[in-house]
Amino acid sequence: MLISITFMLISYKQSVIKTEVWPDKIYHLNDTSKIEELTFLGKVLFYDPVLSLDSSTSCSSCHSPYNAFSHTDHSLSHGIDNKIGFRNAPTLVNLAYQPIFMWDGAINHLDMQSLAPITNPDEMNESIEHVVSKLNHQSFYRLLFKNAFNDSLITGAKTLKAIAAFIASIESKSSKYDLVMNGNDVFTDQEKNGFTLFSKHCSSCHTPPLFTNYSFQNNGLLPNSALNDGGRIRQTKNTNDSLKFKVPTLRNIEFTFPYMHDGRFKSLTEVLNFYVGHSNKNSMLALELKSAVNLSSNDKVDLIAFLLTLSDRKFLFDKRYAYPKSEIDSLRKLTQ
Ligand code: HEC
Ligand code: HEC
Questions:
Q1: Ligand 2 atom with minimal separation from the 259 CA
Q2: Rounded CA separation 129/126 (Å)
Q3: Is the same domain home to 216 and 167?
Q4: Which residues in the chain come in under a pLDDT of 50?
Q5: Which element (helix H / strand E) includes 324?
Q6: Mutate to test the pocket of ligand 2, among 219, 222, 249 (most ligand atoms within 8 A of CB)
Q7: Domain containing 228: what range?
Q8: Which of 89, 133, 149, 306 has its CA 20 to 30 A from that of 264?
Q9: Are 301 and 183 a contacting pair, CB within 8 Å?
């Protein structure tokens, strides 16, 4: 009798817990035979400054794994020769689910993404042809390309494909939020209230589980006159897109400060003060934000407590994404 009641309770508990459903991935590797080798090659390239003209700057210079692949402490990105770019380096996470890239959507396919920083004069200031020629001179890379493509000939397309395979593999799905949604943890009262406030004011754009709907929106920021950045209009030339920027994910937001496309806010408190205080005189402001966001000081504390449940420390220190020092050292020795 007791056993069957316990069993009923367990099955009741399981039936009310719903695992959060994620959308399908958008980025797929067609040839699935060598995914591991391809992703490994992409990771080695991601951490190698050989992609920049003077071998000073790697992808990881601006997208550091310990800051959820963003550039903490730099409002605008710093590239080759200490050149300052005009935007804040975003986190690289769950990109396989993302349909469009860059703050203004300049890139629409992950396979093309790396070409932009490699050739940007303020970032790596290099040409893909020269990268390929530098790689072809290293037996280390010829071996890695052979492992990944069954062919040691290095090309630009293969180089870009490998980097895309690596960045598409970077996933963050094990935050406290995820544990709670999967029934393996519970929110504190503060986090629960924060989640309610988030669902009311924020989730129409920062939609779970990716915490963005990838649309372009004007969230009320006043333009930064020093940068003159129109956002989405730069791509579409449509005046309706003026000062709209891609809604960023809020996963790991604790580690990706400073915030916004130009890194103007240093803390989450500053971000919330902005959302609460912003003027709705801006005619391009998104509809959802036209009515005031009212948050008391307690509400702000609770909302931040909820945002911190999106921190994924397992992801931050995941060996699959870290610089593969020992593998590189032994492969270099092997190919000397
Ligand atoms: C000098 C700093 C810098 C370097 C080096 C750099 N990036 Fe970036 N990255 C940025 C900035 C800034 C942006 C946002 C640019 C924009 O929106 O116009 C960005 C955007 C991206 C995005 C788009 C993310 C999104 O959510 O839209 C991806 C993907 C990316 N970088 C990958 C890479 C890869 C791969 C490399 C190496 C080949 C690299 N980056 C090198 C600064 C850098
Ligand atoms: C109408 C859509 C919309 C709503 C609603 C919205 N946001 Fe945003 N949010 C954006 C956009 C767009 C950006 C990027 C703006 C930019 O950089 O120009 C952004 C940026 C942010 C950032 C900076 C992220 C980063 O990586 O730099 C944070 C944090 C943030 N929002 C939190 C919130 C919170 C908390 C709420 C609810 C109080 C909220 N947002 C409501 C659209 C929205």
A1: 27
A2: 9
A3: no
A4: 1, 9, 11-15
A5: none
A6: 219
A7: 176-311
A8: 306
A9: no
Question: Within this chain, do residues 250 and 323 fall inside the same structural domain, yes or no?
Answer: no
Please give the structure tokens belonging to residue 208: 């779970």
76 and 159 belong to one structural domain? yes
Give every CB contact of residue 129 below 8 A, 6+ residues apart in sequence. Answer: 156
Looking up residue 298, the CATH number of its domain turns out to be: 1.10.760.10
Residue type for position 268:
L
The Å distance, Cα 274 to ligand 2 centre, comes to: 10
Q: What does the block give as tokens for 233?
A: 């209009």
- And the tokens for 211? 């915490």
Residues 329 and 291 in one domain: no
- The answer to whether the CB of 126 falls within 8 A of the CB of 120 is no
Question: Are residues 206 and 234 located together in one domain of the fold?
Answer: yes
Residue nearest to atom 37 of ligand 1 (CA): 59
Residue-wise pLDDT for 188-197, tens only, equals 999 999 999 9
* Number of other CB atoms surrounding residue 13 within 10 Å: 10
Residue 291, CB-side half-sphere exposure with 13 Å CA sphere: 4
DSSP bridge partners of 64: 70
Cβ of 39 below 6 Å from ligand 2: no
pTM over 0.70: yes
Give me the helices (H) in the chain, please: 2-16, 35-46, 59-62, 110-113, 115-119, 128-136, 139-149, 156-169, 176-181, 189-201, 233-236, 268-277, 297-308, 313-316, 325-334
Give a yes or no: residue 16 inside a domain. Answer: no
